[in-house]
Amino acid sequence: MGEKRDVFCPECEEPVQAQPPRIWACGTDRPAYSHLDGEPLCPVMTGAGYLPAEPVTQVPAE
């Protein structure tokens, strides 16, 4: 069995869970991760517009 690693939102640095968000916009892929309250990860600007951030395994240093 794999080692458990904590996963965080890179924008707000809060822990996240490996579960899709409770609510998601139609027409886009549902992310695999959400905040602990079930909300999508914080939005970031991408080439396709605003999308949820990709989780990280280490909180970014300030």
Task: Sum up the overall morphology in one term.
Answer: globular
Q: Can you tell me the number of structural domains?
A: 1
Give the strand order, joined by hyphens, for the main sheet. 1-2
Number of helices: 0
Q: Kindly name the structural category.
A: mainly beta
Order of helices and strands: EEEE
Low-confidence stretches: none
What percentage of amino acids are in beta strands? 15-25%
* Total E-strand runs: 4
| Rg value | 12 Å
Helix content: under 10%
Instruction: Please give the oligomerization state of what you see.
Output: single chain
> What is the residue-averaged pLDDT?
87
* Terminal CA distance: 33 Å
Give the biggest sheet. Answer: 2 strands, antiparallel
Overall description:
With 62 residues, the protein is mainly beta. It contains no helices and 4 strands. The chain has a two-stranded antiparallel ribbon.
In short:
The chain has strands at residues 16-17, 34-35, 43-46, 49-52.
How is this fold's topology laid out?
Blueprint: E1 16-17, E2 34-35, E3 43-46, E4 49-52
Antiparallel strand pairs: 1-2, 3-4
Describe this protein with a few key phrases.
62 residues; 0% helix; mainly beta; two-stranded antiparallel sheet; two-stranded antiparallel ribbon
